[in-house]
Amino acid sequence: MKREPRSGVVDGHGVSAEDAAKTLAEMAQSVHMLALALGVPASLLPGAESYDRLEVNTQVAATPLRALDATMLEDTLTLFRGDLTLSLEVAGLNPDHEPVAVELPAARSASAALRDFQTALRDVLASEGDSARVDVRLSAEKRRASELAQALVAAREGFAGSAQMLAATGIIVFFQAQAWEERLRVASLPDWARLGLVGSGQRGVVLLCDVSGLLAGTGLDVAGIAGGRLPAWPVLTRDEWAVFTRHVEAVLALRGDQVRWAGAPAALPEHLGVRTVAPGMPATVGRLAVMRAELATLGLAQEVWGEITQRVIARFAGTRPATCEIPFAEADATGDLRLLVALAEWAYQDATEARLSIAREALGSELPAGQAVGASALAVAAAPALEAARANLALYLRGNVAAYFQAREAARDTVARYASSVRAAVSELTGDLVDNLYRTIAALALGGLAWLLQPAGSIWVLRVATGVYAAYMLFMLLVVLRERSERFAMERAALESQLGMMEELAQSERERLREPEVSADAHFLRYWRLARDIYAGLGALATLGCVLLFTPLAAALVQAHGGH
């Protein structure tokens, strides 16, 4: 779906999107025509234009300047509103001769200043002939052009024209498409980052004033506005931008961790991915494709040496790694590089180390060992490397899935054995408790019988029996129950250690598998506390009974029983 730019006023000065596009196209055409009228060779102009100005410093024949149109010059100066300056000075004059020069804009009328210069120039030509030369310094800054570009982009419908998106958008203007095309190389990426065209949370818009067409992507738009024709911008939604920025941040982080590359630019192949919405700019399409392939190559390397502003060497995986020089040699970069980009996009698809490692190993295996390779060799190797990477990822995932289920079954068996062990400990604990209770009842019965039969002699037997019983209960508390508590703690710690080594299991899966463990722990602790309380109670009663048997009360009971 495409939307036309809004046609209303888009900035505080009353400039509409249509007016902005027309004015930009007129500025590009006017400065081009002025340069040609000055006799500046057309071949010099692309190299004279930078991101923020067009700066020409050259020497031309003096004769054509006699016919320079003052009206055209006035119109051009008016159009640029102070952003354009022109200096003309006849070169090689005799030092005794008055300088023949003009600086525009001048303090007076530009037309009058130019006519005075042309009059003086005719005198020079009359005396020195047609060999006279003129130093030309033409400077066209892009302050107004940048303001108009901002207004044009702000007119976009929806999220792309919002203040939030504009704050994250770097916008540049080129009067000549060829000047832009000469900057379509990886060495320009630091400048692109400085201008906000690429980077984390950044996107770029480039307006070319002398061509038509539209290349659009999530990270970059290149629009031709020749003749003032407005591009039919595709819609960019907030969700699309959010997904793109999250992916870029994740990929940049992974590349920073996995590629040893000092001074790596914050640019990815994703930033340069565009599709042709309106035909035109084939040179831009081709150069962007090569840049994407170069960035893809650097992202698949294990190590990168050199400065991106000059030339770098990418070193790939393997015991004898192949290497590749970036930027690609022009003759070697004319093939189909799309599979190389596809391999890099696959490697960084979900920003995981596993995919990247598999893609690297697959590519390294397809490249000749220990050799320097070019773009064509990389493109040839990328096709089988991508197939091999996909197959290896499937095997890797299948192995991981099998390992996961094996780990889950092992964890389930471990927890089951632990729960069974705890249940056995509880049975042992309750069995001992029941046996001790039976022994207690038997001891009480025997003591009672002895007291009934021979009260005088049984008191010492009872004293000794209750003392021994109290000591036995203390032994059960301090030794037996403590040993079982420590054994329970050790078995629980062993279980924790075993489960901790099973890193394949997710936290939710661990919690679900440990439900029998939790129940078994609660079961054991409940009966352990019950046994502890019973042993403590019996020990306390035995101690109290033993103490009472040494008091006058016991003697009185014996005498009372004997009297009966």
Account of the 3D structure:
The chain has helices at 17-37, 45-48, 70-80, 110-128, 143-154, 163-167, 177-181, 189-194, 238-258, 282-300, 338-347, 353-366, 375-453, 455-500, 507-513, 515-549, 552-563, and strands spanning 2-3, 53-61, 84-91, 101-104, 133-141, 169-174, 203-208, 212-216, 220-225, 233-234, 260-261, 275-278, 303-306, 312-315, 323-326, 372-373. Strands 6-7-9-8-12 form a five-stranded mixed β-sheet. It has a five-stranded mixed β-sheet with strand order 11-13-14-15-16. Strands 2-5-3-4 form a four-stranded antiparallel β-sheet. Strand 14 (312-315) and strand 15 form a beta hairpin. The chain has 564 residues and is of the alpha/beta class. The chain is elongated. Helix 1 (17-37) runs antiparallel to helix 5 (143-154) and helix 14 packs antiparallel against helix 16.
Biggest β-sheet: count, sense, barrel?
5 strands, mixed
Strand order of the largest sheet: 6-7-9-8-12
Structural class: alpha/beta
- The helix content, as a percent range, equals 55-70%
Using only C-alpha atoms, the radius of gyration works out to: 45 Å
C-alpha end-to-end distance? 115 Å
For the residues shown, what is the average pLDDT? Answer: 84
- Count of alpha and pi helical runs: 17
Uncertain stretches: 1-13
Strand content: 5-15%
Compute the number of strand runs.
16
User: Quick one: overall form?
Assistant: elongated
